[in-house]
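User: Structure tokens for this complex, please. No commentary.
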Amino acid sequence: MLTVPATLLRQLDPVATSVTLVELRHTTQKEFMTRNLTAETVTITGHHGDNIEAYMALPTDTASVGSIVVIHHLPGYDESTKEITRRFAAAGYAALMPNLYHRIAPGADPDDAAAAARAQGGISDEQLVGDVEGARRYLANLSVTNGRVAAIGFCSGGRQAVLVGCRLPLQGIIDCYGAFVVMDSPAESSLQATSLLGELASLQCPMLGLFGKEDGYPSPEQTATLEAALTEHGKDFEFHTYEDAGHAFFNVDRPSYRAEAAADGWQRIISFLERTVA
Amino acid sequence: MCTYQTTLVDLDGSGKTANGWQAMSRASVYVDHPVHFASGHAVMIDVLNPQLGPSARVALEMDAASAQALAEAILHALAETPSDILLDTHRRASSSA
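Assistant:
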């Protein structure tokens, strides 16, 4: 049974003070969401049992919510990715972003931490999987969540979202322009990323992929290779490649931002979460 | 893209960071999304001292032409300086880190 806020009720009937609207019984709870949320820094148990910092945002006006792990991009645990984390909570999902560079640079400015991580060769796939698994467990065990967890990653995090989809019990993954999913990073690079083509058979959850046609990493040819591999393995996936958008088109505070692609992309992300974890 | 190409250089010098002057021991040079410079990508130079922590860092972001000009200016300065003065740029044993 729905509880209708008094303010909304008075819009429907100015003299009403309380009533049960049986005819609205099938209306979803989210239609009455205030979009209220809380956001805070928490400590979670990551790879190897290490305590690491994470940023969590929770909706406060609904219960039994789906969850999402937000994997930050190579530039780190920054303000723009915290904003993305809060956006998920405003949409009615519990969201948690582990600081993948916490061990390397605890308490440092995000750009300093990212520079230190790069200088040390980045983080391993094993650490990434362990940290995301820690975040997944943390979300699944919260009293306000329904135990269903997706993961999303931007840029380098896009590849990492595909990786965790192949190795962890997630209900959905979202790859936003992740490079080096179907090819290795250059051999001479100090940051190594290996192709995930050999792991795709293990992908056990639906996948949403959002890409820019003007991007070179991943290029449209590379996303076509990924699409063919997922089709070959019979996976549940949905790809969208936006015209007039390149890499990082979701990033609102950079020149790469493309409003039309980002707006449509956010709609598709929320629809995907409604289908997979709500 | 977040390019994974990073060139690391060991160096010996000092840099002025948010915490004042500090000894520097390494540089990372790469092309990636800048934090502040208003472009899609930039040539990024981080001069670091990992032993002093992540905040011991001097960071530069610039366009490709600027990076090329800076590199040529460094090479020009080295080429135009007498060798005995170049030898005098070496750290002295009495210098503190």
